[in-house]
Amino acid sequence: MSSPLVRRRAARYVFILGLLGLLLGSAFLLGTMEGASRISVMAAFFFVLLGSLSAILAIKLHKRSLYLFFAGFFILLGLFLLFSALNIIPVSLRQGWPLLSVFSGLALVPAGWHRYGGFRIRYVVPAIAFVLLGSVLLVFSFNIVPFSFAQFVIRWWPLLIVLTGLLLILLSLASEASTPRKPPDEKPDKETG
């Protein structure tokens, strides 16, 4: 009879092989679809696989927040590349590169949630900043506005300073609110003699 340790180890290997088979088989299946480049689909599945492996590491290694960030980021990137390769989203990475910033912001949310057991300003503010930065850059990448990003920066550069100042103020207030305060020292009563 095999010991429980050997069975657990075998179950882990079977799980990993099953996950690889599922992902690679799905990649080859989707790669056979018309209009999709097999290389693009394989690159997309590579990032989904990398994200899945990061999620497994996060679970196995005491659920580390860094691995959760990478899991979220790579899975979002892989899904974007897959949908782009299948023309479900008619946007190439060349045009949609600001989505990398949005994906980073979205991936910070579960990492921060895990680390602190809820939303903390230390993770929420950078996540919102990354999403907003990516959204602003997407406006210029898709040519929604009639001027370029360089023209925007030349005209509105003081707004960047204002936003940086606002971000620093929010971070300062958040760190001050999360720092426990010590009660003021009590002064001893003066004795009258």
SSE order and pairing:
Blueprint: H1 4-31, H2 38-60, H3 65-85, H4 93-96, H5 99-116, H6 121-141, H7 149-178
Task: Give me some keywords for this one.
193 residues, mainly alpha, 75% helix, 0% strand
Can you describe what's shown?
- This protein is mainly alpha-helical and 193 residues long.
- The protein has one domain (4-177).
- The protein has helices at 4-31, 38-60, 65-85, 93-96, 99-116, 121-141, 149-178.
- Helix 1 packs antiparallel against helix 2 (38-60).
- The protein is flat, with a radius of gyration of 24 Å.
- The N and C termini lie far apart (87 Å).
What is the number of independent domains? Answer: 1
What is the CA–CA distance across the termini? 87 Å
Number of strands: 0
The biggest beta sheet is recorded as:
none
Q: What structural class do the secondary elements suggest?
A: mainly alpha
Strand content: under 5%
Summarize the model shown.
The protein has seven helices and no strands.
